[in-house]
Amino acid sequence: MGMGWNIFRRQTLILLFFYLAGFPLFAGMSHLQTIRADHSTSPGAVTGSFTGAVKYRNTPERTEHYLAKVWSSTLPADSRIDYYLEHFSKGDGLAYLNRCLTRAEPFIPFIAERLEAQGMPPEILYLPVIESAFRVDALSRSGAAGMWQFMMNSIEPYDISVNAWQDDRRDFWKSTEAALHKLNYNYRKTGDWYLALAAYNCGLGKVTRTVASSGISDYWELSEKNLLPRETRNYIPKLAAVTILSNSKGSYGLPLHWGARTFWEKIPIEKSVDIRRIAQKAGIDKNLFLTAHNELNYAVTPPASSGYELKVPSAMRDQILKILEEESDLLEFKRYKIQSGDTLSELAEWYRIPISMVREYNPGVSSRYLRIGQILLVPLIHDDIPERKGVMISDMTESWTGRYTILEGDSLWGISRQYNLSPEELAAGNSLPLNAVIKPGMILSVPHSEGERFEN
Description:
Layout lengths: L2 H17 L10 H5 L1 E2 L8 E2 L8 E2 L17 E2 L2 H10 L2 H14 L3 H10 L9 H6 L39 H19 L2 H10 L1 H11 L4 H6 L5 H17 L17 E5 L6 H8 L3 H7 L16 E5 L3 H10 L6 E5 L6 H7 L4 H7 L13 E5 L22 E4 L6 H7 L4 H7 L13 E4 L10
Antiparallel strand pairs: 1-2, 3-4, 5-6, 7-8, 9-10
């Protein structure tokens, strides 16, 4: 049994994950332990340990196949939940939620599989809606990046790199694993999933200090007493509303099905490749593939020495492996001829690539000892780079079969006009500096053109 069986098994596991009723998602939550039945109230109403009587809503059974229930623990009759249910169920709020869930489609099975494997609350599936609108490229004003919104000062414990080539906070795979690790750690420290989620928002230290100073270990009571930051007080009610509405079987015009489920695998690569070329050759949607590799600062993978791995749809794994093994044109280059005054930093800035990329493909090149006429390989990783006059050698130079004999009074500027070239192109094609002194009798390579003065 090969890859097909593995995919079937994983799909079955996730379907079971979504269908099993009664999964104790938020078992052990502190507020649930304090609730006592009050038989004098109407069915479904109970009192808790809050000041005064607090009614709790009966959450409906799940009506969609994504989660075990719409919300798996008893939720308080909280006005904030009602507010966000109202907000996200119509108008701009509903349109926003619809966009979020559409973006989430490629990643839902991946996240759900890991939540199930770690025995974590399935509601966490929708946390990126709150964190980033399910955008892998999200960047907050405070500098938090990616689907799970990691700050630079919070990545050290995890397998997350940020360098000239990539920002793994935007890697859906690595950031998801890091986020679930962080949430599990919060839960181990607080013993309560609501507090663990609150700590993800405002920091574990803030939550533990608040619990210690107040003597209250119930998220809802802490929120009721305004002991948590405002954003944190709204954080879980917002998540609850999004979860309930996202599992409403299309009652609000939200997606009924996720369509074809995308499962992902990693493939180690031994050379830099252009993500766009892989997608084109494999017939994968380019935008999907670029989104899956959004951590890359360019559409090109880092050097082989980095240990970078492609993330590919499981169904395309064998085809992409074959492309990697057999295709040699997975990265496009231009040949660049150094002119007087050129520096590596200027070239890197012009072509919007790191200097390290120039060095990677030109071993031994020295920014201090660039030679006029020296040829460098420049990876072309952007489609909108204007031609840099005087240095980029057109591939046409290989077909310059004409020879032009310089006469008295000729100049590079005048000769270049005859052949529809720039003076810089003509100079570069003949390994001359732009200010070279040309003398009668010198012969230049030029494009073959009938009627012009040239020698064969």
